[in-house]
């Protein structure tokens, strides 16, 4: 969503670009504006949505609660992964500049330019996926996001999911958490 806003050249996308390029997290007002803008599109009402990396602060969560009604979200998920594993995963991440598909450095071709097998775009190492930038983001995550766990726990909307394992194993755990929530009535 962020990269799409930057690519589209929206006002909020332009404001976000410089901050993202430096490896910092976006301030609440920009994030909230981007998310509200995106959730206002018709496809989110028809198909639903998954927000990855949002909210990151309690004010963002409060804004999401206020803007979600009547299209309320089902669940907040805390995907638990040890810091050293997060660092290794992000440092090896490669992204298609056109469609945003993610790959790992181990999937790189032996010779020549790396082309996305999804859309044919160029695959690059993001400027903000350096060890220093990742550690800075993880430090900010630890300080700014920890209060969200209490926020969603108090609302009865938090599921903690083990993020260690193969992609299929983690996906199965995520689906189980979501399906489990949908079978229960929402918290009042």
Key attributes of the depicted protein:
3-stranded antiparallel beta sheet; mainly alpha; two-stranded parallel ribbon
Give the topology, please.
Layout: H1 2-8, H2 11-21, H3 28-39, H4 42-47, H5 58-68, E1 76-80, H6 83-91, E2 93-96, E3 102-104, E4 123-124, H7 131-154, E5 158-162, H8 167-183
Parallel strand pairs: 1-5
Antiparallel strand pairs: 2-3, 2-4
Helix pairs in contact: 1-2, 2-3, 3-5, 6-7
What would you say this structure looks like, in words?
The protein is mainly alpha-helical and 188 residues long. The chain has a domain at 1-66. Helices cover 52% and strands 10% of the residues. It contains 8 helices and 5 strands. The protein has helices at residues 2-8, 11-21, 28-39, 42-47, 58-68, 83-91, 131-154, 167-183, and strands at 76-80, 93-96, 102-104, 123-124, 158-162. The longest helix is centred in the C-terminal third of the chain and has 24 residues, at 131-154. It is globular, with a radius of gyration of 17 Å.
In short:
With 188 residues, the chain is mainly α. The protein is 52% helix and 10% strand.
Oligomer category: single chain
| Residues in helix, % | 40-55%
- List SSEs in N-to-C order: HHHHHEHEEEHEH
- Strand proportion, as a percent range, falls in 5-15%
The first-to-last residue Cα distance is 30 Å
Shape: globular
Strand order of the largest sheet: 3-2-4
Question: How many DSSP H or I helices?
Answer: 8
Q: What would you report as the Rg, rounded to the nearest angstrom?
A: 17 Å
Secondary-structure content class = mainly alpha
Major sheet attributes: 3 strands, antiparallel
What average pLDDT do the residues reach?
87
What is the strand tally?
Answer: 5
Report low-confidence residues grouped into runs of 5 or more: none
């Amino acid at each position: 969503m962020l990269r799409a806003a930057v690519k589209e050249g929206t006002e909020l996308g332009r404001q976000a670009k410089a901050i993202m390029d430096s490896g910092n997290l976006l301030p609440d007002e920009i994030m909230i504006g981007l998310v509200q803008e995106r959730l206002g599109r018709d496809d989110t009402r028809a198909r639903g949505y998954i927000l990855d990396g949002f909210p990151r602060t309690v004010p963002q969560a409060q804004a999401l609660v206020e803007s979600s009604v009547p299209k309320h979200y089902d669940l907040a998920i805390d995907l638990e992964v040890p810091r050293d594993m997060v660092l290794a995963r992000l440092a090896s991440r490669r992204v298609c500049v056109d469609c945003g598909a993610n790959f790992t450095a181990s999937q790189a071709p032996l010779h020549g330019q790396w082309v996305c097998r999804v859309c044919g775009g160029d695959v690059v190492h993001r400027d903000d996926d350096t060890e220093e930038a990742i550690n800075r983001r993880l430090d900010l995550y630890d300080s700014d996001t920890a209060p969200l766990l209490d926020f969603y726990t108090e609302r009865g909307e938090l599921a903690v999911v083990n993020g260690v394992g193969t992609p299929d194993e983690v996906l199965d755990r995520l689906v189980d958490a979501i399906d489990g929530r949908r079978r229960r009535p929402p918290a009042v």
